[in-house]
């Protein structure tokens, strides 16, 4: 594998166009008509009593304050300038010692905090897994909701016209300097407080959605000081990557009708298998993009149970002996 520095340089030169694709999908857009049918409604920043600032500082150059909105009956954050981590700890009676950092998606311009964050974390905690929702810093967007919606619509129009051809992972991820720092800080904090949170520091994984899946991959492949013990990428890109000999076990879920990442090959899966590293891949017939924890009649809704069974197969649902 190339050096971390080389990968980060590749990330820094990535395409804004791809970032727009991820943004449009991560907030649940399947068509322009659907986007018009379910408008974003500004809401007050919700109480997050257990969130912990990660100490990575304020987003450089940020001038727009954090704000939140509701869409598809769920809560989203944008203009996040200070990264935080929110613990969701299991009942001590059924705690397994395993932990998962949860990275919501949103094109690095918004975060699906409820559907791809809190709801996932609560479900993991219910299975005895300590979950930590990462609210990472985001690219700044217009404060005005109308201007924000317009910018999203423009990005989605470009995404819809994008050619369906495979792209190298390093060329398809936007500038992630702050987000990588936030992810690494999350792992450092969990390991530092592992005794307090009853977490085995050698059993901390990460699961991400769309843009969060990209961040999860970067953390696994370029984050020497983070080193997730296992990872899950949910409706993220399947582009090929350079896989190190000690890459973590990986769980992947994608819908065959995903408008962004389906039909572009399975390079990511092949990269893992070529490196002889454990990987499980679920390709659901239907589900679109951004299904997360939404209850749907498609089999993609079963991704979470499959992910938990996969963790169990790897011995992650039993306390370490």
UniProtKB/TrEMBL annotation:
Protein transport is among the record's keywords: no
Keywords, alphabetical: Hydrolase, Signal
InterPro entries reported in the protein's UniProt record: AB_hydrolase_fold, Dienelactn_hydro, GDXG_lipolytic_enzyme
Top-level lineage group: Bacteria
Domain spans labelled Dienelactone hydrolase: 152-292
Signal sequence, renumbered to the chain: 1-24
GO molecular function, one term: hydrolase activity
Database matches in SUPFAM superfamilies: alpha/beta-Hydrolases
Protein name, entry field: Alpha/beta hydrolase
Organism of derivation: Sphingomonas telluris
Lineage per the UniProt record: Bacteria, Pseudomonadati, Pseudomonadota, Alphaproteobacteria, Sphingomonadales
């Amino acid at each position: 594998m190339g050096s971390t520095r080389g990968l980060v340089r590749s990330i820094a030169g990535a395409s804004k166009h791809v970032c727009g694709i991820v943004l449009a999908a991560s907030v649940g857009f399947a068509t322009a008509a659907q986007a018009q049918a379910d408008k974003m409604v500004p809401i007050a920043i919700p109480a997050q009593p257990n969130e912990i600032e990660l100490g990575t500082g304020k987003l450089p150059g940020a001038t727009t304050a954090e704000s939140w909105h509701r869409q598809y009956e769920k809560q989203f954050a944008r203009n996040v300038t200070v990264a935080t981590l929110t613990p969701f700890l299991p009942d001590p009676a059924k705690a397994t010692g395993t932990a998962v950092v949860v990275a919501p998606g949103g094109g690095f311009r918004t975060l699906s905090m409820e559907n791809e964050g809190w709801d996932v974390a609560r479900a993991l905690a219910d299975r005895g897994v300590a979950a930590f929702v990462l609210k990472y810093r985001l690219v700044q967007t217009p404060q005005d909701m109308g201007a924000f919606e317009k910018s999203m619509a423009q990005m989605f129009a470009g995404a819809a016209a994008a050619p369906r051809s495979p792209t190298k992972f390093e060329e398809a991820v936007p500038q992630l300097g702050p987000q990588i720092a936030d992810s690494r800080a999350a792992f450092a904090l969990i390991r530092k407080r592992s005794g307090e949170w009853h977490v085995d520091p050698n059993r901390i994984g990460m699961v991400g959605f769309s843009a969060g899946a990209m961040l999860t991959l970067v953390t696994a492949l370029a984050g020497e000081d983070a080193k997730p013990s296992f990872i899950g990428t949910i409706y993220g890109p399947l582009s090929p990557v350079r896989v190190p000999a000690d890459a973590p076990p990986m769980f992947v879920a994608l819908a065959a009708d995903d408008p962004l990442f389906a039909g572009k090959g399975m390079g990511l899966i092949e990269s893992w298998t070529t490196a002889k590293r454990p990987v499980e891949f679920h390709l659901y017939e239907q589900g679109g993009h951004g299904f997360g924890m939404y209850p749907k009649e498609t089999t993609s809704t079963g991704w979470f149970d499959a992910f938990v069974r996969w963790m169990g197969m790897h011995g992650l649902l039993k306390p370490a002996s």
